[in-house]
Structures are given as structure tokens and as C-alpha cells.
From TrEMBL:
InterPro entries: DUF7144. It comes from Actinomycetospora chibensis. The chain crosses the membrane at residues 36-57, 77-96, 103-122, 128-148. Residues 1-21 are annotated as: Disordered. The keyword Transmembrane helix applies. Keywords: Membrane, Transmembrane, Transmembrane helix. Residues 33-148 form the DUF7144 domain. This is DUF7144 domain-containing protein. The keyword Transmembrane helix applies. Coiled coil: none annotated.
Length: 156
């Protein structure tokens, strides 16, 4: 009888060890996915800042209608890209610092979502660039939100 209890206890310990090993691998995988998203966020934020600087420095490089894009002058769009790009970059750095931080992930989803909307509105001025930026924004959102679903499901 004592042998059976000892065998059951060992089996439970083995199962718990295997479950903990699986969870640690999964956690590392999830953290790496968020880190990847954070690195892309830093790159997208930097590109957006450069886009804003370019719109301020050389406004004739963008296709506009009478100097406006969606009823906002080009300088307004330039400043919007500068500020939003800086926020995306800072949120990406915050995620790199702590990949599982709920606040950093929420800020990342918010600013990247806004970035995608701004790029959608910017589409007439720079169509190819806007499509590339929207694709990168969607990739980042997928990385951050997918891990959030796993976290809320109790897998992390």
C-alpha cells in the first residue's frame, strides 16, 4: 500500500514537473513574440518620426490636394506623425523592458492602432509607404493581442 502511494506521489510530481516545463517554454515563446512586436514597434515609430520630419522639411515629396490631406495641412500631418511615431517608439521600448507588462501592452495596442488609422488617412499622400506601415502595425497588434489572449486564458 505504501508503495502504491509512493508511486502515485511520484507520478503527480512528474506530471507537475512536465506541466511547469511546458509552461516555462510557452512563457518564453510568448515573451519572445511580444519582444518581436516591440522591436517592430521601435522601427515603425522611428519610420513615422522620419516621415513627419520629411513632411516638414520637404513637403513637395507628398501628393496632396492644394497642400492638404483630408482637410488638414501638411504641417499638421507632419507633427501628428512626429508625435505618434515618438509614442509608438516609446511604447516599444517599454515592451522591450517588460514584455508582459499589462500597461505597456495596452499602451502599445492603443498607439499602434492609432498609427494604423493615421496611416490609412495618409494613404492618398503616400500610398505604398502607408500600406507597408499598416501591414507592420497589424503585425505588431497581432503579436501583442495574441499573447494577451493566452495570458487571460491562464496559460502564462
Amino acid at each position: 500500500m505504501a508503495e502504491a502511494d509512493g508511486t502515485r506521489a511520484e507520478a503527480r510530481e512528474d506530471a507537475a514537473t512536465r506541466r511547469n516545463d511546458d509552461e516555462s517554454v510557452f512563457t518564453n515563446s510568448a515573451r519572445e513574440w511580444v519582444r518581436f512586436g516591440a522591436i517592430v514597434m521601435v522601427i515603425v515609430g522611428g519610420f513615422s518620426v522620419l516621415e513627419g520630419v520629411m513632411a516638414l522639411a520637404a513637403p513637395d515629396t507628398y501628393v496632396t490636394r492644394e497642400g492638404t490631406v483630408l482637410a488638414i495641412d501638411l504641417a499638421g500631418w507632419a507633427w501628428l506623425h512626429l508625435v505618434l511615431g515618438a509614442l509608438v517608439l516609446l511604447s516599444g521600448l517599454a515592451l522591450l523592458r517588460d514584455a508582459m507588462s499589462g500597461r505597456a501592452r495596452a499602451a502599445g495596442v492603443t498607439v499602434v492602432g492609432l498609427s494604423a488609422i493615421v496611416q490609412l488617412a495618409w494613404l492618398p499622400a503616400a500610398p505604398i509607404w502607408s500600406i507597408i506601415m499598416i501591414a507592420l502595425d497589424v503585425l505588431v497588434l497581432g503579436a501583442i493581442v495574441a499573447v494577451g489572449n493566452q495570458h487571460s486564458a491562464g496559460r502564462l
